[in-house]
Amino acid sequence: MTASVPEARELLAGARSVLVLTGAGVSAESGVPTFRGRDGLWRTHRPEEIATPEAFARDPRLVWEWYGWRRERVGRCRPNAGHHALAGWALERGVTGGPGVTLVTQNVDGLHEAAAREAAGVGDPAPALPVELHGSLFRIRCTRCAHRASDRSPVDAASEASLPRCPACGALLRPNVVWFGEALDPGVLERAFAAADRAEVCMVVGTSGLVHPAASLPLATLRAGGSVIEVNPDPTPITGLARYTLRGGSATLLPELLASRS
Ligand code: BJW
Ligand code: ZN
Q1: Domain interval for residue 102
Q2: Which ligand lies nearest the alpha carbon of 172?
Q3: Ligand located closest to 238 CA
Q4: What is the pLDDT of residue 246?
């Protein structure tokens, strides 16, 4: 049901373990385009044309052009008040020995990690980093060997010959993201589902809830006897499962929901 912030706050305060699942909507107010919806990325590119291994095999230049453009655009974006509220809250709960928080994101923009590092302070060895289900725009991997690396450099997609190549074996590099039809990293998936199973509350923020296995995480929490809170301006398939739904943007709602009272 649609609820006000105090009811959801109370549910969170009483939960020993919380899973937060985020999607593209949490970064919308940072200027990162979402996938679906009015201004979504997929109004111009159909997913099956661009976010699949088949698309990359067919036209790696087109796919790298799209990822190069997104890397440049997202690289200019900063975490918003919603990312900061989540990072501060997770850190606070860790520091005070309070209920555990696991942040699982479908996003590939790195903004939760940036906010976690800022919240922990420069040089802190152990910021509470998110579990990234779908990889990162700013990491690459080789299409042939085991080479992986961080990479924020601009992409030259003028021709197939200019595309990024592996320094170890010379094969084509690809963005280290998870495309449709590809398996998620088994270790990452295991951590996410373990957190969903033990969570007393799963808070789902800014996702259309259409892409699996991510969208199955709140179902796992429900099956284990926990509750779901949804934060989203629009209804989704998760809305009907949620104990409380907060309607609005996450950059406004998360700071209200998660700020400490003192
Ligand atoms: C705001 C807001 C504001 C706006 N504040 N909110 C079960 C059933 C059916 C199908 C499947 C199934 N299990 C698997 C499948 C197949 C497929 C799938 O899910 N298909 C469905 C779409 C039908 N899944 C897969 O293929 C996955 N792989 C897999 O299952 O492998 C199995 C396997 C096993 C063994 C061997 C081989 C295979 C992989 C899925 C990978 C998804 N990848 C992408 C691209 C990542 C790289 C990239 O970025 O380019 O991930 S697709 C895209 O969708 C991206 C996102 O992470 C993901 C989810 O999107 P998200 O975050 O929900 O964004 P939007 O745009 O959809 O929604 C934004 C929301 O924000 C909206 O609700 C707005 O209202 C809201 N919002 N402003 C808060 N200010
Ligand atoms: Zn290689």
Answers
A1: 5-32+79-134+184-258
A2: 2
A3: 1
A4: 97
CATH of the domain at 238: 3.40.50.1220
Neighbours of ion ligand 2 (CB under 5 A): 142, 144-145, 147, 166, 168-169, 171
Residues 68 and 83 placed together within one structural domain of the fold: no
Site of tokens 């790298």: 64
Query: 248 and 188 in one domain?
Result: yes
- pTM value? 0.96
Is ligand 1 within 6 A of the CB of residue 210? yes
Query: Which residues lie closer than 8 Å to 227 by C-beta, 6 or more apart?
Result: 11, 200, 201, 202, 221, 243, 244
Q: What is the pLDDT of residue 94?
A: 78
pLDDT of residue 122: 63
133 lines ligand 1 (CB under 6 A): no
Site to probe by mutation for ligand 1, drawn from 211, 219, 232, 252 as the one with most ligand atoms within 8 Å of Cβ, is 211
Report residues of the chain scoring pLDDT below 70: 1, 48, 96-99, 122-126, 261-262
* Structure-token pair, residue 3: 């609820």
**Domain-terminating residue out of 123, 148, 177:** 177
At which residue do the structure tokens 């020993």 appear?
Answer: 16
When divided into structural domains, the chain yields a total of 2
Structure token pair of residue 179? 């495309």
**Strand locations in 106-200 (E):** 131-132, 135-142, 148-150, 173-177
